[in-house]
Amino acid sequence: MSKVLLISTGGTITMVRQNKVQGEKGNTNGEGPLVPADMETFKAFMPELFAGSIMVEIESFHPLIDSSDIGPSSWRQIAQIIYDRYDEYDGFVVLHGTDTMSYSASALSFMLENLSKPVVFTGSQLPVGVLRSDAKENLLTAIEIAAAKDEEGNAIVPEVTIYFEDQLFRANRTTKRNAEHFSAFNSYNYPPLAKAGVHITYLPHLVHYSDPSAPLILHTNFDTHVAVLKLFPGIQPAVVRALLHIRGLKGVVLETFGAGNAPTDQWLYRELKAAVERGIIIVNKTQCNTGSVEMGLYAVSLNLMKAGVLSGYDITTEALLTKMMLLLGEQPENAKEMITKDICGEMTVNE
Ligand code: ASP
């Protein structure tokens, strides 16, 4: 019998509606807010969890939390559970709120070096107790994917992934795209690794495999001295200057236009160049969801190259930020070189 460990952090999937506090306004429907319940309440809604052919065990955060409250210390907690219990299970499912799921799942993909078992993140847009909820399908299929093996007994998708609304994505390629529809995530620059209908169709040629004989290595040191600088027409020198002079700043995700373009103002060039000379790693990430940074394609990106800004190619902001924090924390001396390398399928480097 396959064994899967379900790690529950919280999120909408585990939530119930709190009674409105007397005298308070409530939401637009006059109701109280959604808050995480506890795993006993959750399990009562999900008897199917223990009725299938896969043995499911649960490890839960106490208390369960909304994913807006998840960051590096929770990422460490999730990764440590997987690392400590790695040999006991065929795969892992992480229940997580959708709001920051792409950040957490991207972080985990960099933290778990040589991963050779599935780690599938999932959640839902409606709480498990709501009749029309997407919780059951998402969770039960995620468990099946976490346990799935080929004829030789090897995991079919031994990566960190997100399963949501019929599609399995490489985690570090995802972005939350929708706060309303059930299909909350997309992977704009990489195809899904599996699709679920009556059958689950896997696409193994798209999967990233680590050497199964290499031991799992856990990386947990994040350096959070990073920032995102989103360019916009009319951006003022004072804004850029203030951000680039934050004390202790080590890395910047520079969100640019189109194929990685920026205004050609000399002040911008000088600020970026000076920051790079102070040792700050600046990586160019396009504001477009689909497509890649291609510095040099347009004249308006030449200054960025001259200033020493690095290309983020087609990486997501979620993957770039978490990768940057982990590289700065784990191997600061190599961070600049490693940030432009593909570590586990998070970007397509096209030189
Ligand atoms: N606010 C919730 C969370 O991220 C949203 C969700 O789970 O869909 O925890």
Beta strand count: 18
The assigned structural class equals alpha/beta
CATH architecture level-2 label of the largest domain: 3-Layer(aba) Sandwich
Count of the domains: 2
Spans where pLDDT lies below 50 across 5 or more residues: none
Secondary-structure element sequence? Answer: EEEHEHEHEEHEEEEEEEEHEHEHEHH
Q: What's the shape? A: globular
The order of strands across the largest sheet is 4-1-5-7-8-9-12-13
Query: How large is the share of residues in beta strands?
Result: 15-25%
How much helical structure, as a percent, in the residues?
25-40%
Give the distinct bound molecules. Answer: aspartic acid
Characterization of the model:
- The chain is of the alpha/beta class and 351 residues long.
- The protein has two domains: 2-218, 3-Layer(aba) Sandwich (Rossmann fold), CATH 3.40.50; 226-338, 3-Layer(aba) Sandwich (Rossmann fold), CATH 3.40.50.
- Helices cover 25% and strands 22% of the residues.
- The chain has nine helices and 18 strands.
- The protein has helices at 39-45, 72-84, 101-111, 135-147, 237-244, 266-277, 302-307, 317-330, 335-338; strands at 3-10, 15-17, 34-36, 55-65, 91-95, 112-113, 119-122, 160-164, 167-170, 174-176, 185-187, 194-196, 200-202, 217-218, 226-230, 251-256, 281-286, 310-311.
- An eight-stranded mixed sheet has the order 4-1-5-7-8-9-12-13, with helices on both faces. It has a four-stranded parallel sheet with strand order 15-16-17-18, sandwiched between helices. It has a two-stranded antiparallel ribbon with strand order 2-3.
- It is globular and about 65 Å long.
- It starts with a strand and ends in a 13-residue tail after the last helix.
- The mean pLDDT is 96.
- It binds aspartic acid (ASP).
